[in-house]
Structures are given as structure tokens and as C-alpha cells.
Amino acid sequence: MEYLKLAQLYKRLEAFSEKSIKVGILARFLKDIPDNHLQKVCLLILGTVFYPWEKNKVSIGEKLAIRAIALATGVNRNVVEKMFVMYGDLGIVAEELTEQKRQRPLFKKTLTIEEVFRTLRKIGELEGEGAIDKKVKLLVDLLIHAGPLEAKYIVRTVLEDLRIGVGEGIMMEAIAEAYGLPLDLVEYAYSILHDFGKVILIIRKGGKHALEDVKPEVGTPIRVMLAVKVDSVSEAFEIVGRPAEVEYKYDGFRVQIHKKGEKIWLWTRRLEDVTKQFPDVVEYIKECLPDRDFIIEGEIVGYDKETGKFLPFQKISHRIKRKYEIEKTVKEIPVEAHLFDIVYYDGQILFKTPFRDRRELLESIVNEKEGKVLLAKKIITSDDKEAQKFFEKAISKGLEGVVFKNLSAPYRPGRRVGYMVKLKPVKETLDVVIVGAEWGEGKRAGWLTSFVVAVKDPETGEFLEIGEVGSGIKEKKESPEDITFSDLTEILKPYIYKQEGKRVFIKPKIVIEVLYDEIQKSPKYSSGFALRFPRMIRLRPDRSPNEIDTLDRVKQLYAKQHGM
Ligand code: AMP
Fold it and tell me: CA–CA separation, 188 vs 169, rounded Å?
């Protein structure tokens, strides 16, 4: 099949922004694709040549793409760069330069989907010495034979920026429309297979029933079931029913553990393979679970070697990212796995098995060992007070909250279906004073943005910076309560006492209330702390700067957050 056909599809999809039109175009296109091309075509439509669980990426970066375009079209690199600045899209640059190209290759061949796919995969897989030059050469070879439209989309694909406005959602709808199937069912099958081509092949062979029968494969990660957020114990029971299982909500990362024979895989919720980064967990699994095939879910949590207390997620995120000296980090940041679900065991798929029975099976096979593998702590209750007490206990131990689970629910991959809900404490807010800001640029020129906020040191009376707030403030007033950048600029202007470049320093007069995700220790600000994702909720004209929150309160909140 010619790659040009796909490039023409991209062009049509790009031309329409309305979702239903895109879905229609795509549905018609997919129906005509021969079986043997389906998987490649579906990946290419999503702008990639790798499955979500594969580690490689095709992305080669703008610099290399510029080099390849220049070589393939016989134009000086500077010209390509200039055109890039003008158009802001190397795909269009490649299209235009290919159009203008005078020299044609001696033997111009027709690019097939097969060839483009294979070459792009090679580009993504090359590593080590000389890899960069080889990548560029492969791309040049493709571009030499490409027509203008093909060049445009090949370049956008290698930059991982296809810009045709098609994601997984539209693909699912297109498949549902093409074959007259419920969207829900297509989504279900995709959550297990992550391969739209395979989904269509199954539909073509066996229709709706075959899709309903799709099974997980050990070694291929599935999308995990997600939790709905609630604000109270009673709301939680309303959704999951009574009695419910209430479990601690651990603040680590969700892990899907697959075991097949000797082989063990650890996948994150985003389908990243982190087996190499956690050799300790692999050993614990061998030690604490039977030698059978399974897919088990849990949370990997870090803990402090000295105090035994749980560490916040940021700490183990270092371990996830770590590619080298893994043994060292294993020692520095020990982790344990808290298991909470099982979806496959010894030949049996357990999606339809009620949660109560899945948990029972899990309990019967796990040999718990402190510091290695444990079961998520749970109670089963119908009582609001008992659940509330369990929730408070979780918070006092430095956990994130609790998860309520419907005891008779099946497992639904990839979905927030309400079989499981999460309850976290209502967020505290801080009253802080604005002590600085930055003049905005572009659309925000003339307005102050990025407001530096401070708390008070009760002993010295000094104002200590704790973060920069940029969100929660509107560009345009949508309702009377909204505070815009323009409003805030007018309010603050009289208090500006110094300016350095774009930075302004403001007398501590204006108090605002901010919400944040977390308090972190940070040398960046004079308070020694930083607010993560702070957003302004409202102005506090009723508060004077002397009444704002103090460094002591920040310290208390920080300690509470860490269960101290
Ligand atoms: P959230 O990330 O806030 O949507 O909350 C759901 C996440 O909580 C899951 O993806 C898990 O990573 C995590 N989690 C921690 N403890 C549990 C538990 N006992 N059961 C289910 N999920 C849990």
C-alpha cells in the first residue's frame, strides 16, 4: 500500500476540526485497509510506529530533522532554519522545499507504508556510537523519494507532532462507527490490547462476541481500573454500596506485576516497563508469591530506612527515572510493594470475578514480608464512623487517604467506573502576601504575572518567600467574582518599589488565599519551603499582612503531610 494514501488521509483529517467529521473520514478509511497493513496503519495514524509499551520513540529532534531536510532537498541548512522560523512547522518546510526541488533522484521509487514504517522504527531503535548520523541518513533516504505531501508528514512523524487532531478517543469512535459496535466495547478491548490494528482484526474475524472475549496476555500490560474522586465517607458508600472494602491509599506508583514462568515484568500505570529499575521488587515477588503465572496490581512505596516512615512520591520518582547505578539507588531508597488486586492467576482471567473473591485469592497466595511485599491494609465495613476512623488513621500515618471498593464489582480495565473511589483530605489553604511579580510578555504584555508570595516569620516579622503563583487568575473576566491579571496589576502597581528587568519588587500589602498540591522543602525561596502548583483562590482584603500564615504553620502542614 502506498504511503501517499496515508498522507492524503492526514491532509483530510487536518482540514476538518469537527470531531464527527474526523470520525467519519477515519471510519471509511479503516474499513478499506487490508488485514496485513492494519496494525502499521493504525500506529501511523496515531503518529507513531511503536506500541505504548515499547520503550523506543521515533523522535529525532528539530536539529536533526533540519539537517535531513537540507540534505534531501539540496538546500543550505540556514535556509531551512529561516523557513522554520517563518512557518513554525518543519513539516510545511519539508513540503515546500520538496515541491521546489529541482534534482530528482535517478531511480525514484514509490514509498510504501511498509517501508516508511520499517525505516521509522529503525530510526527509533538505533543507539550508541554513530547512531545520530545513521538516523539522519535513514531519514534522508526516505525524504529523497518522498513527494511534497509525504515529506510533510514523514517529518512531522519523526518529530512526534503529526498535528492531525486524532488521538485514541477518535480512533475508538471511528472503529465503533465503522463496524457498528458499542464504543464501550471497543474501549474495553483496546484497554487490554493497546493495539487498534489487532482490535479491528478481531472484529473482522469474530465480530462483537470475539471482542467481548478479548483476554489479557501476561507480558502485555493492560490499562488499569481508575478511581473516582469523592469528598466524604457517605458519598463514597453511596457510590460503591455497603458494605465496602476500605483500603489505605498509598502514595507511590501503581504497579502491574506480570509473571510468566521465570519472567517478571513491572509496568507503571502509563505502561512504562520499570522492571530494570526495581530489581529488588522482582526479587521480593519471587520470594513472597507462588511460582505461578499471574497479573497482580499494587502500589510501590518508598520508605525511610531510619524511621520506617513512608516517603513522598517524589523520592521514588528518582528511582523510576534512573537508568544507571541502579544498585546504589536500591540501597538509598528502599521500597516495598503493597498489593491490592489480581486479574489473572494460573490460567484464569479474573475480570468478571467479584472484587471480594479476587482479594481473597490474593490474600491466600501472598506470603507477607515487612519491607518487601505486603497486602494493602483494609477493613470491610458498612459504618460511616468506622470508615471515617480508618481514614483518619491513614492520614495520621502519612498516607494520602483511603480507597473504597465495591465488593461485588468486576474489574474494568482503563475506566473510572465507580467500582472504586478515592477519598483524600480536603486541601488546606494558605493566606500569603504578594511581594514580587514579573511583567508579562506577548498576550500578557502590560500585566503583572507570576506573583511571588510570602509567609511571615513570627519572630523577626520578616516576609519569607514561598512560591510563585500564576494560576487561578483570569485573562478575561467571565464572572463578577473573577480576578483578572489586569485587576491585580492595578491593585499592585502603587506598591511597586523596585524594578530589575522584567522583575518587580512589591511592598507586602496585598493578601491572597492560595491552594496548593503539596509543600516541599526548597532552597529556592527564603522560607526554605516551596508550594507545589499554587493557585490563587481569592483576594483577602479583609486580612492585613500581619495576619497572614506563618512559617510555623507551614512547618506544621509540612509535618502533617509527611505523617510526622
Ligand atoms: P489517583 O492517582 O489520585 O487517581 O488515585 C488512584 C491511585 O491510587 C491508583 O492509581 C493507585 O496508584 C493508588 N493507590 C494507592 N493505594 C491504593 C489501593 N489500596 N487501591 C487502589 N489504588 C491505590
Answer: 12
Q: What local confidence, expressed as pLDDT, does residue 563 receive?
A: 61
Of all atoms in ligand 1, which is nearest to the CA of residue 424?
3
Q: How many CB atoms lie within 10 A of CB 256?
A: 21
Q: Active-site residue among 249, 372, 405, 424?
A: 249
CA of 233 to the centre of ligand 1 (A): 17
The residue type found at 158 is V
Nearest to 195 by CA among 47, 43, 35: 43
Residue nearest to atom 9 of ligand 1 (CA): 254
Q: C-alpha grid cell for residue 50? A: 511503536
- Reduced to 3 states (helix: H, G, I; strand: E, B; else coil), residue 464 is strand
Respond yes or no: is residue 493 known to be catalytic: no
The model's confidence at residue 395, banded by pLDDT at 50, 70 and 90, is confident
CATH 3.30.470.30 segments of the chain: 232-423
Q: What is the distance between the alpha carbons of residues 118 and 141, in angstroms, rounded to a whole number?
A: 13
pLDDT digits (tens, 9 = 90+) for 146-159: 999 999 999 999 99
Whole-number Å distance between alpha carbons of 263 and 257: 11
Q: Which CATH superfamily is domain 429-561 in?
A: Nucleic acid-binding proteins (2.40.50.140)
- pTM, entire model: 0.74
Q: Can you say how many angstroms the Cα of residue 104 is from the centroid of all Cα atoms in its chain?
A: 44
**Nine-digit cell string for 456:** 511571615
Using CB distances shorter than 6 Å, the residues near ligand 1 are 227, 247-250, 254, 269, 299, 340, 376, 403, 422
Asked if residue 526 lies in contact with residue 467, where contact means CB atoms within 8 angstroms, the answer is no
Contacts (Cβ under 8 Å, ≥6 apart) of 9: 25, 26, 29, 45
Determine whether 159 is exposed, middle or buried from the number of CB atoms within 10 Å of its CB (0-12, 13-18, 19+): buried
CB atoms near residue 75 (< 10 Å): 16
Over residues 16-67, the pLDDT tens digits come to 989 999 999 999 999 999 999 999 999 999 999 999 888 788 878 889 999 9
Q: List the Cα angle 474/480/485 in 5-degree steps.
A: 25
| Distance separating alpha carbons of residues 483 and 538, to the nearest angstrom | 8
Instruction: Name the pairing type of β-strands 263-268 and 535-539.
Output: unpaired
> What's the CATH architecture for 232-423?
2-Layer Sandwich (3.30)
Ligand 1: residue of 250, 341, 404, 416 to mutate (most ligand atoms within 8 A of CB) is 250
**Portions of the chain given CATH number 2.40.50.140:** 429-561
